[in-house]
Amino acid sequence: MKYIYYSLICCFFALTARAQDAVVFPYQVIANKMVIQIKLNGKLVPMIFDTGGRNSISTALKTEFNASVVGTMGILDANSNRKQIEVVELEAVGFPIGEDIVNAVKSEVNTIKAEPNAGKAGLENGVIVFKNPRFLVLDSEIFPCIGVQGYIGSDLLQDCTVDIDDQKKEIRITKGGRSSLMSDRQVLPFVDDAKGIPIVTLNVGKYDEIRVMFDTGSDAFLSLKNDAYEKLKTAELVQVIREGEGGGSIGVNGRGGAGKQTMVQVPELLIGAFMFTNARAKLGNPPETLLGYQSLKYGKVTIDYVNKLFLFSPFSSDKVDLTNAKHNWNLEIYVHDGQYLVATVWGKLIGQVAVGDVLTHINGKVIKPIPFCESLTTGLPILKENTKLVFTLKTKSGVKNITVLKD
After folding, report:
1. Range of the structural domain that residue 361 is part of
2. 295-327 burial: b if 16+ Cβ within 10 Å, else e
3. CA dist., res. 85 & res. 394, Å (int)
4. Residues with Cβ within 8 Å of residue 7, at least 6 apart in sequence
5. What is the pLDDT of residues 203-261, one digit of tens each?
6. Cβ contacts of 17 within 8 Å, gap of 6 or more
7. 84 or 306: whose pLDDT is higher?
8. Which residue of 69, 158, 250, 377 has the smallest Cβ count within 10 Å?
């Protein structure tokens, strides 16, 4: 459900809770996706919580609910792949606060807390209820891997304020806006054409700005749109640190096509007055530059959808240097049809190895194939535990031993 260009369909939701009713519930993080439990038509269903996306359910869930098709909508995903898909209407969506979700969620958080007003009028059987919401119908190869059946996006939350605390792995949904945010000097307003999605303007350096979407569905800290990069490059506010060749990321409409890859470093990025230095970002062609899930490691986020406000509350008062936050292998691989294939080739390895070459050994030892889902959720421990390895690859010009680095 991401980055949707609206057609003639508009979605309206009636939240039945009182103005300050709220629920606080846990989420798990699986493959850098925030997974919550939510009630759809009375059934408890695991879903990805995605502030950069739109509500969606799988084709299987649409069939199970016998959901009525009310129209179609064109969407663009993170790779700017375009697709026309069905829109269906469900009976009700609810955020559980009782024993159902406590028993369903296996995480370190083992209690569900309701705010003082949450047990009063407006709650139906322990949940805050949205009536007759509309959902896109789509399937993704990541759904079975992390055990979900769709996305909960920003369109469900237009009458609400959302607080996300990644240290506690908790989300709070409150009915209505939060007027106190309006006097907070660090709060950022949505841009005028945000269309209900948290898109704000962030400072890069002291004087330049870029549009950024806060997108919990993106697993990176920062993903930079090409036109934003061109603007920053002209102002000499970004540095290219790596160039390569390879494929795009997984989007809701499939993988991005192979092509030139560029990784840059942004010396200074400010969210409100809080500064991040030396943030890495891959260039791409999403509809917006993305501030992703990894940003939640450094502060709480509040999104007031009613008043169209965004607040980042850092866990520390000191600026954060991201130089060592994440290293990348100069040869990236992925699993396809039981084989390890080269996904991206960076820097000096271009010409020695090509996208699609097959990895067979690491440090001289045969690596056993693992399922795609295991590669996504767990990966190979040896890749996590080392910064220098020797890959043996089957290439078009024969078998090669290539030294790869993580830097």
Report:
1. 331-405
2. bbebbbbbbbbbebbbbbebeeeeebebeeeee
3. 40
4. 71, 72, 73, 74
5. 998 889 999 999 999 989 999 999 999 999 998 999 999 999 986 555 444 444 568 99
6. 118, 122, 123, 128, 129, 175
7. 306
8. 69
Q: Which residues of 205-242 are buried (b: 16+ CB within 10 A; e: fewer)?
A: beeeebbbbbbbbbbbbbbbbeebbebbeeeebbeebb
> What three-state secondary structure class fits 338?
coil
Quick check: 386 and 396 in contact, CB under 8 A?
no
Q: What is the pLDDT of residue 285?
A: 84
Position 4 scores a pLDDT of 40
Say whether pLDDT at 325 is over 50.
yes
Least confident of 100-104, 151-155, 402-406: 100-104
> Are 396 and 248 contained in the same domain?
no
Cα–Cα nearest to 267, from 329, 203, 220, 312: 203
Name the region of 125 (left: φ>0; alpha: ψ -120 to 50; beta: rest).
left
Q: Are 263 and 337 contained in the same domain?
A: no
For residue 233, the domain's CATH number is: 2.40.70.10
Q: Which residues pair with 71 in a beta bridge?
A: 87
